[in-house]
Known about the structure:
The structure is a homodimer.
Chain A: H1 4-18, H2 24-31, H3 35-47, E1 51-54, E2 58-61, H4 63-86, H5 95-101, H6 107-116, E3 142-143, E4 152-158, H7 163-171, E5 179-185, E6 192-196, E7 202-204, H8 206-210, E8 212-216
Antiparallel strand pairs in A: 1-2, 3-8, 4-5, 4-8, 5-6, 6-7
Helix pairs in contact in A: 1-2, 1-3, 1-4, 2-3, 4-5
Chain B binds a DNA duplex through residues 3, 5, 23-25, 33-41, 43-44, 55-56.
Amino acid sequence: MLTRAEEDHLKAVHRLLEDGIASTNAIAERLSTKTSSVTVMLQKLTEKGLLNYQPYKGVTLTREGREQAVALVRKHRLWETFLVEQLGFGWDEVHEVAEQLEHIQSPKLVDKLDDFLGNPAFDPHGDPIPGKDGKVRLRQTKRLEMCGPGESVRIAAVSETTDGLLRLLDSRGLRIGSYLHVQDVHVFDGSMDVKPKTGAPFNLSKTVIHHLQVEPA
Amino acid sequence: MLTRAEEDHLKAVHRLLEDGIASTNAIAERLSTKTSSVTVMLQKLTEKGLLNYQPYKGVTLTREGREQAVALVRKHRLWETFLVEQLGFGWDEVHEVAEQLEHIQSPKLVDKLDDFLGNPAFDPHGDPIPGKDGKVRLRQTKRLEMCGPGESVRIAAVSETTDGLLRLLDSRGLRIGSYLHVQDVHVFDGSMDVKPKTGAPFNLSKTVIHHLQVEPA
DNA sequence: TTATATTTTTAGACGCATCTAATTATTCTC
DNA sequence: GAGAATAATTAGATGCGTCTAAAAATATAA
């Protein structure tokens, strides 16, 4: 069984490997610790068979390590879903609490929570929730940026979840699952006129559009 | 902010004070640690203003300590209620998980959970759930033992929650909130014939009856 | 390609919560 | 009330996860 610190390091490695390599520096940055502390933990996790690690050569996950990391992601996203959908938290205020809840040890709890929520495929941020078997169901999504006039889409994810962006979307009544009809695209500034399912059309700036992942409605 | 170990010790003191004094021995026993470890923690919690403690003289809670302890009890019982009522756990298998969940730090989460569950007054074991203000709503209950033929009651609590007893009650379809009509009391062995709301009457032994707290139905 | 800058690792220390062993208080018993 | 039994505390050690400082390996640039 892993300690909380071990789980945090494992998750950081997994996350960082998603877009490139997991450097000692980046891991330390992510966990707000020092690189020397990270090195020690990498050695320990290697000892436990969760990482492939050679001094100065970088690190990758073993099969077992990946499974454990994915299990943590699953827990994190299920709890976020619970907090937003059931308890009425704002989707921009759940991360910290989910960060704690993901360390609760009880396989039965995770599976029951999954069922309780209706085995959701995506969390409130639109990120896919791995299933019990660790598999994620992928969807074909694209950036709203890539859509043309006349297209009807559903917001599937927000790629950068800064507080500012989340609040902006919130003020427009937009969240994961919202439906949009693209009315017009303005070439000169990259902005877009969109119409929600209900209510009046409005304009979205290039910056916002860039961070919205959508799927065909 | 308290560490997990500190919270565990605080809760143990609170629990033990309920039926008498909280001896260093009893605390250690409860937490599966050694008395020397307990002494150190008592000193630390005193330092933090949560306990009144004098070497060899025993320990009591300060106002602040009691508030924190009650808050932990509140969290524990709310989570147990959630696990049983919402996720479908058996009431005899939630303690361990709730023991973990009670350490989650998020006042907002506790209050939202409370609302989500409909501000329940009692947990699945029939123990009262302190409110946000720390107050508990007391009920007049008595032992089923004390009831006579013709009385209709509702099971309010089980005073000894051993696995064996819980399973026995479960097999009879009995849990907190179940309604019973007392049909007959057998003086020679202290057993009782009772009839549930639905289904056939059955007999409950003196031992079982002794542990059932009931309120007027 | 050699010097310099950056990254990573190692070595040694610290705080926390625990332990064992030894010591000190308190309580019980005759 | 004195000695024995019990309970509680202190002293010192250990494991864990972190830190700082120093050393080693790798990458960059003139």
